[in-house]
């Protein structure tokens, strides 16, 4: 009942029921639902799992610059953009491999 029941498949499963089963079996993270970021917390509460302060998949979105109190230089911004670009490339490569 915590899932949006949209059956969008963005989590990697055909429908919300399959995703729920995978979470219950420990095969998927409760934070894999792409429709609502709070679903992961609700699922964690239901299954009695300890939820992190930041959802597993949202840790990726925490930029390095948010962790730095000092002013940013253009070099540090270029470094962060380069790192994020590599992450995106890695994700795209994994997506392409799914289709093979």
TrEMBL record:
Keyword vocabulary terms for this entry: 4Fe-4S, Iron, Iron-sulfur, Metal-binding
InterPro entries (alphabetical): 4Fe-4S_dom
The 4Fe-4S domain, residue ranges: 1-53
Keyword Iron tagged: yes
GO MF assignments: 4 iron, 4 sulfur cluster binding; metal ion binding
Keyword Glycoprotein included in the entry's annotation: no
Alphabetical list of Pfam families matching this protein: FeS
Name of the protein described by the UniProt record: 4Fe-4S domain-containing protein
Organism: marine sediment metagenome
